[in-house]
Amino acid sequence: MREAVMAALSTVNDPELHRDLVSLGMIEHASVEAGVASVKVNLTTPACPLKGKIEGDVREAVLAVPGVTRVDVTFGAMVRPPAQPAMTGVKHVLLVGSGKGGVGKSSVSVNIAASLARDGARVGLLDADVYGPSVAHMMGQGGAKVTANAERKMQPIEAHGVKFVSMANLSPAGQALVWRGPMLHSAIQQFLKDAAWGELDYLIVDLPPGTGDVQLSLTQTIQVTGAVIVTTPQDVALIDAARAIDMFRKASVPVLGVVENMSYFVAPDTGHTYDLFGRGGSRKLGEEYPLLGEVPIDIDVRQDGDRGTPAVLAHPDSAAAQALIQVARNLAGQVSVRALSQSLADLPDQLTVV
Asked: What is the spatial distance between Cα 348 and Cα 341, in angstroms, rounded to a whole number?
């Protein structure tokens, strides 16, 4: 009967990868005993945005097998590395950028990292905004200092299940850094290669606003899986977001999606929705870049950041936190799609060699 169950599972497609679970190697275990089928599915990311649909489709397909009266579905996860991993131990480097400041890029970065870790992924967060570091404060570790381990590498600070490094934990509080490009490049190199990141599924990099030295250093130093653009709906932000997209295009970094932050406001007393900045403007950036989510204006996001606990952990049921959780899961889905497309692109060459 196991063969019949596997045949049924071969008809179930991953909704994002558009291939069946069996050929993708996502079925870790399948057995039947006394009419009860047990199936374990290994997802391509712990933050799979369509886990519920996969579970429903598996149940429906296996219940159609004669003799099966119940289906128990369990899940595991293994993030697939790209064809060329970014760094030793780090599978995917994801850049979070914006064309201008003030769009909530750091807040989105912190919440993406915390959400992915909450779902079970191994996550690092690099605060590459050297001149205006804010990640340490938002992670509740503004007073902590980066130390060195036995191998004399920087030991990232850990908070909320995320390893992070920020210039705020390396320099005196309130001290301005007056550095030129070569010093910035050297600092970024150290953050990447002289930090003991360990084994990570995702390294989220919070970039400074604009299209300057830090962005160039990163894209020229390591293999980047892709970038996320954070913007607000109004035209002035979208114009700068388009410039950031163009920069990544010229640097051969795929844009995995767009996050529309401060997309709308829901009045707490009436429940009425106000589009303060003209909701939906990010769609003007073009259909080729997926909209990862629209995040509403929510005072809890700001307050939680000031208190040092990301909103996805402090108020996970709020509308803004739910939107940010979905952003993180949609991003993880885009990463999985890209990793699969790379492996399929390499398949003919592999067959030729054999």
From this structure: 12
CA distance 137 to 159: 11
DSSP sequence for 224-258: --EEEEEE-SSHHHHHHHHHHHHHHHHTT--EEEE
Binding positions? 99-106
**SS3 state of residue 3:** helix
Residue 18 in 3-state DSSP?
Answer: coil
Domain boundaries, the chain: 2-77, 90-344
Residue 272: the pLDDT is 85
Q: Beta partners for 202?
A: 92, 123
**Has domain 2-77 been given CATH number 3.40.50.2300?**
no
Record the pTM. Answer: 0.89
Q: What is the CATH number of domain 90-344?
A: 3.40.50.300
- What pLDDT shows up at residue 286? 61
Residues of the chain with pLDDT under 70: 171-182, 281, 284, 286-287, 344-354
Spatial distance between the Cα atoms of 246 and 316, rounded to a whole number of angstroms: 34
- Indicate the annotated binding residues for ATP: 99-106
The bridge status of strand 273-274 relative to strand 265-266 is antiparallel
DSSP H or E run through 28: strand 27-33
Q: Give the number of other CB atoms < 10 A from CB of residue 185.
A: 18
Contact present, 99 and 243 (Cβ < 8 Å):
yes
